[in-house]
Specification:
single chain, 18 helices, alpha/beta, 5-stranded parallel sheet, 7-stranded mixed sheet, about 500 residues
């Protein structure tokens, strides 16, 4: 049997429990584990509604900090150890034979295959033509490489460093990944399994909000060139007409302001004509008089057809400006976040005495190499002794100060005072401390690398979207070493790897 892990990002939709029940309560080869990646903001602490799986299927929850589906999926697959990783969305339904058909798809994939896509069925109303939003969702049925049901070989994901986290929403990040995987020499296949993707309820402004994806189109062009739509298998859309519509509208304002009334009137007519054509094209395939809800749909199509061209152009311009000269994924490392005890200084449990601070061998020269390379440095340390009443916050501050006297100044220092029972998200392996350090340094999490001595350092980096290098000590468990993506013999070796990730000659 081919081993696989299911990664299921969620923002806490009620449908999460349903898809998990579908997955767990059916025959067929089970996943080795199910990783539910909670991508709600970290201040949302309400527990997710998770059904209890049968014996032998572990359901584990990770937190990714509300950084979007690309980052959530990365946190999931990087925590998996199986050959295959199957990504699912939290708003789908799985037929009773999904596990069996997934196993057949994976078994049929030769060593050259890096991913196998499931088929997507979108139920539409039988008693009337579909609305604009329903037709938009139905497009998933013909979409290439949609991660609503997409199984990737973990080796392929690792080779291209997973999803590009600069895509902030569920749009184009799947096409970008598929392009990079095929460019790396892998083949992508369509399988025989199928999922059901119901149309989610949406308000009248949903079609305007989705125009924010035009910024992702700009990122795709910056990364893959002008032909990205052809190579990525996406449609051309109507953006050129949106440009014409907004140009006519803006031109009318300028012409009127300069007293050229006749030319302004012609520009107004052009803008109105293009808008009307757009509205008619959206209304024609949808509900007609006599169908339920037709009047409300026509009203939505009328006002959103006015707003969409302007929203699309605005987001494309915003994206084009934001992604000028954008490097390929992943971008170079710009900052290093180092664990304190066992990594920078000898581990003294619950140390509150600055006099007991002793740097590990080679720590000073290693940090100096990082500083000379222009990398920003932060110290990130769990200090549960505060919550346990063994040391005070002042003790932590004094010890951290002494570390900086010995090893030089850090650009940021973050610590977690909680113990595991507190359930906080800042204590490693939670991501919050890494996210706070990145924000304090003015860099993105994916531009950071965490250097530590135990598995929780690596897990915190994965959850936050940072790189990680493990420097084992006698307290590091063998399975932590085995599961780490990067391991160094000592701090100097870790710095060698960091400088390579930063693109700096050693």
């Amino acid at each position: 049997m081919t081993a696989y892990t299911v990664v299921l990002p969620t923002v806490g939709r009620p449908s999460l429990s349903t898809v998990l029940s579908d997955l767990l309560d059916q025959p067929g080869p089970p996943p080795e584990q199910v990783l539910v990646v909670d991508d709600r903001p970290l201040d949302q602490r309400d527990p997710l509604d998770l059904p209890t799986g049968p014996d032998g299927i572990a359901v584990r929850t990770l937190r990714s900090g509300g950084r979007g589906p690309a980052a959530a999926r990365n946190a999931g697959w990087r925590s998996a150890a199986t050959e295959w990783v199957a990504f699912l969305d939290d708003d789908i339904r799985l037929p009773a034979d999904w596990r069996a058909r997934l196993a057949a798809d994976l078994a049929a994939a030769g060593p050259e295959v890096g991913a196998v896509q499931g088929r997507i069925h979108v139920p539409l109303p039988a008693d009337r033509p579909p609305t604009d939003w329903e037709r938009n969702t139905a497009g998933l049925a013909v979409a290439r490489w949609a991660t609503a049901d997409m199984a990737y070989r973990r080796a392929a994901l690792a080779q291209v460093h997973g999803f590009d986290e600069r895509f902030p929403r569920a749009y184009r990040e799947d096409a970008d990944l598929a392009l990079r995987v095929t460019q790396a020499g892998w083949q992508l296949r369509r399988g025989e399994r199928e999922i059901i993707h119901p149309v989610r309820p949406a308000d009248g402004a949903v079609s305007v909000r989705t125009q924010a994806g035009a910024a992702s189109d700009a990122l795709m062009r910056a990364l893959h060139g002008r032909t990205w739509r052809r190579t990525g298998g996406t449609g051309r859309g109507r953006f050129r007409w949106h440009v014409a519509t907004t140009a006519a509208g803006a031109g009318a304002v300028v012409l009127a302001a300069t007293g050229r009334r006749r030319a302004a009137a012609l520009a107004v007519a052009a803008c109105a004509g293009l808008t009307a054509d757009f509205a008619v094209r959206r209304i024609a395939p949808g509900p007609m008089p006599g169908d339920d809800g037709w009047a409300a749909e026509w009203r939505r199509m009328a006002w959103t057809s006015v707003a969409i061209p302007w929203a699309a152009v605005w987001h494309r311009v915003r994206g084009t400006l934001a992604f000028r000269d954008v490097p390929h994924w992943p971008p170079p490392v710009r900052a290093v976040l180092l664990d304190r005890d066992g990594t920078l200084v000898e581990d003294v449990p619950y140390n509150g005495d600055p006099a007991r601070v002793q740097a590990v061998a080679g720590a000073g020269p290693a940090l100096e190499r990082l500083r000379r390379a222009g990398l920003r440095l932060a110290m990130v340390t769990n200090q549960s002794g505060v919550a346990r009443g063994l040391i005070s916050e002042q003790d932590v501050a004094r010890v951290n100060g002494r570390v900086q006297e010995v090893l030089g100044r850090f650009d940021a220092v973050e610590h977690c005072p909680h113990e595991p029972a507190d359930g906080c998200t800042c204590r490693k392996p939670g991501p919050l401390m890494v996210l706070r350090a990145a924000a304090a340094l003015g860099v993105e999490p994916h531009e950071c690398v965490v250097v530590g001595d135990i598995g929780s350092d690596v897990e915190a980096a994965r959850a936050a979207g940072a790189h990680a290098v493990l420097v084992p000590t006698p307290v590091t468990r063998p399975e932590e070493v085995e599961q780490a993506d990067r391991v160094a013999d000592d701090l100097a070796g870790a710095v060698d790897q960091v400088l390579t990730m930063a693109g700096v000659a050693r």
